[in-house]
Amino acid sequence: MGSSRVEREAPTPLDGGWGWVILMGCFVITGFSYAFPKAVSVYFKELMKDLGCGYSDTAWISSIILAMLYGSGPVSSIMVNKFGCRPVMLLGGLLASAGMISASFAQNIIQLYLTAGVLTGLGLALNFQPSLIMLGTYFDKRRPLANGLAAAGSPVFLSALSPLGQILVDKYGWRGGFLIMGGLLLNCCTCGAVMRPLLGKIKKVPAGVEADAQELKEMLPSKPGKENNAAKKSKKPQKKKLLDFSVLRDRSLVIYIICKFIVVLGLFVPTILLVNYAKDQGVPDRDAAFLLSIIGFIDIFARPTCGVIAGLGWVRPKMAYFFSIALIFNGLTDVCSAKNNTYMGMVIFCVFFGISYGMVGALQFEVLMGIVGTGSFSSALGLVLLFEAVGVLIGPPSAGRLVDIFKRYDLIFYMAGGELLLAGVFLAVASYCCMGKKKRKDSPNVEEPDVEEEVNHANHDSDNAHQAALKDEES
Fold first, then answer.
1. Quick check: is 75 in a domain?
2. Are 394 and 265 in contact (CB under 8 A)?
3. Is 415 in contact with 326 (CB distance < 8 Å)?
4. How does DSSP assign 368-390, residue by residue?
5. Could you tell me which residues come within 8 angstroms of residue 315 by beta carbon, excluding any fewer than 6 positions away?
6. How many domains is the chain built from?
7. Are 309 and 315 in contact (CB under 8 A)?
8. Which of 124, 156, 286, 341 yields a CA-CA distance of 20 to 30 A from 77?
9. How many CB atoms lie within 10 A of CB 220?
């Protein structure tokens, strides 16, 4: 009686089912990861009064959180490839919460950098990247829509955390607000618990089938050089790399990394310094905090809408150009709003910024998935975030330094807008040149025939020759 071997097929995305639960968890994680560094700016005025620091000093808190979120990407990739998404996310939720709780006892700005900045940022990083990996595993055809809905977590949480933070500051001070925020971050552990791995179906393979397949492969002729490669593969089983640096050989990925580095230099600057700017212009504290809620409310509708448009058949192959349009739109919004000093002008800026910012947020990871695919997404995302960490660590503190020196807020809008415009133009031009070369490279004049096709043609020619010989004998 023949024995059989149990195999598990490669998992296929569900595009639904438990994937919607994964999407909800990614929605919450994205909300905390992107909204929290901006919402914490509500506390900056109180921190400046209590700790005696300036704009650039407090801006470092948000920059360190974002830098850890991005810079810990390779560490997160290695941990995910070794332990899986769920354990890494549970650990990240605990670290993020512990960081904010510890920050509530800080006595100087350096302690805030280490607790609210480094520890909380590391915790958010260990949640953010695994959630995106799980989302890409569960969705394929509906992936642009899923990415857009998950990205909507950022504006939803921004519109909620900003007024909540102002209420907490008024009632409990910044220490009590940090303590309560630390408790809220424990919800990241709940999101990590629902990240169930997607497993393939189990099938039984009879032993004879595998032997026959191997025998048939040996009987077929092979191309020169393939036998040695096959022998090497059979002798040495491939090990899964914890961090695959070979993805950097892709020219499109290098272009994307350069573009995102320029983007993060200015993307977060307006939102981080907007509340302080409004307060310095005489806007009441509650109204100033509400400006971030306006951005978040507009962003809520912008991201899913952009995700639906990105999923259209004629848009998806040109995702890089669509992303560059979003970057240019965001840069023009910053530049055109540099001279706004009235509350109504700030509201109009928030509306347009929310639309353009939502487009950028909805498209950035879809573009990356389209470049490297889901198989290499973990390593590629970790490396992209590492390069972005440098940019995000420079951008907001540099803008705060400009305000401290020149006492002018319009400079930071010009700076941020110019960087976004540069990134958008660079991505469009570089993508056009790269895609043109790739098309010419992928369409050679002579194609090398397949082994099986050569065998079929040879058999067909021999049959024709045999039939011709028989006819000659009959005649």
1. yes
2. yes
3. no
4. HHHHHTTTTHHHHHHHHHHHHHH
5. 309, 322
6. 1
7. yes
8. 156
9. 10
Say what the pLDDT of residue 332 is: 94
Query: Residue 420 corresponds to which amino acid?
Result: L
- Of 42, 30, 109, 71, which is closest to residue 272 (Cα–Cα)? 42
- Are 294 and 351 in contact, with CB atoms under 8 Å apart? yes
Q: Are 397 and 388 in contact (CB under 8 A)?
A: no
Q: CA 154, CA 298: separation in Å to the nearest integer?
A: 11
Q: Which residues contact 305 (CB under 8 A, 6 or more apart)?
A: 148
Task: Compute the average pLDDT of residues 35-57.
Answer: 82
**For residue 204, what are the β-bridge partners?**
6
- Sequence letter at residue 245: F
The number of C-alpha atoms within 13 Å of 420 and in the hemisphere containing its C-beta is 28
Give a yes or no: residue 101 inside a domain.
yes
Alpha helices (H) in 54-195, listed in sequence order? 55-71, 73-83, 85-103, 109-112, 120-138, 143-151, 153-184, 187-193
Backbone angles phi, psi at 44, to 5 degrees: -65, -40
Domain membership flag for residue 444: no
Residue 117 within a domain: yes
CB 53 within 8 A of CB 59: no
Instruction: Quick: pLDDT tens for 382-439.
Output: 788 788 888 888 887 888 788 778 877 788 889 999 999 999 999 999 988 875 555 4
Q: Please say whether the dihedral angle defined by the alpha carbons of residues 273, 274, 277 and 283, taken in this order, is positive or negative.
A: negative
CA atoms within 13 A of residue 259's CA, in its CB half-sphere: 28
Which domain covers residue 398, as residue numbers? 15-197+247-438
pTM attached to this predicted model: 0.64
Instruction: Let me know the angle formed at the C-alpha of 185 by 184 and 189, rounded to the nearest 5 degrees.
Output: 115
- Strand-pairing partners, residue 8, are 202
Tokens (6 digits) for 453: 């096709």
**What angle is formed at CA 459 by the lines to CA 457 and CA 462, rounded to 5 degrees?**
110
pLDDT tens for 310-337 read 878 888 788 888 999 999 999 999 998 8
DSSP 116: I
Q: Give the residue from 91, 68, 26, 123 showing the smallest Cα distance to 386.
A: 68
Which one, of 272, 268, 264, lies nearest residue 388 by Cα? 264
Q: Which of 380, 364, 382 is nearest to 372 (CA)?
A: 380
